Amino acid sequence: MRKLTIVAVLVLVSTAVLVARQGQQKKPLLSPRQTTTYTFSDGKKITVDYGAPSMRGRKIMGELVPYGKVWRTGANEATGFVTESDLMVGDTKVPAGKYTIYTLPGENAWQLIINKQTGQWGTVYNQDQDLARIPMKVGTTGAPVEMLKISFDGSGGTTTTMNIEWENTRLSVPVKESK
Q1: Is residue 11 part of a domain?
Q2: Are 141 and 165 in contact (CB under 8 A)?
Q3: Which of 103, 120, 112, 118 is nearest to 69 (CA)?
Q4: In 10 A of CB 40, how many CB atoms?
Q5: Extended beta strands in 123-158, E state
Q6: pLDDT tens digits, residue range 7-65?
Q7: Residue 163: beta bridge partners?
Q8: How many domains does the chain have?
Q9: What is the domain range of residue 108?
Q10: pLDDT for the residue numbered 29
Q11: What tens digit of pLDDT does each residue of 118-139 get?
């Protein structure tokens, strides 16, 4: 009888621990990982992997994302940028490879930073590893964008536009496959 009681208690405790763990796992992440991909007509791809924070009632541009300071362009782990093909991003040649992207926000002008360091936490930025700083076109969105969104226009060609949208800001830069 005593062994049966001990077994019953262990089963109940184990079940309670499993239920608690499952409950914790079901909580939505505040900045879930997102991936966006563009596939060129030759089948080669660009992939951007980023943490997508939400506004959650906060003022973003100029406050949470301060002007004049390098921004991780996402949340949590650094934003990855992988290209299987040599590119022209704006007027800058970017060889095929793995990179991290950051941005340098301004009230009227932004720069996309392509950095050679990879695998780091998003706030770890080493300017000596910059491959390029590329001017971005700054515009506004038609409506507020709650969750940060990085996307590419169109599909299947040799050129696209990479867009970054959050709050009321829309940033864009042309991307062309370079052969």
Answers
A1: no
A2: yes
A3: 103
A4: 21
A5: 130-152
A6: 454 455 455 545 555 555 566 778 999 999 999 999 999 999 999 999 999 999 999 99
A7: 151, 172
A8: 1
A9: 29-177
A10: 78
A11: 999 999 999 999 999 999 999 9
Sign of CA dihedral 151, 141, 59, 174: positive
Residue 151, domain member (yes or no): yes
The β-bridge partners of 35 are 49
User: Is residue 7 assigned to a domain?
Assistant: no
pLDDT attached to residue 45: 97
How many CA within 13 A on the CB side of residue 176?
8
Are 93 and 113 spatial neighbours (Cβ–Cβ below 8 Å)? no
Q: Which of 165, 140, 143 is nearest to 152 (CA)?
A: 165
Q: Whose CA is closest to 131, among 84, 90, 159?
A: 90
Tell me, yes or no, whether 88 lies in a domain: yes
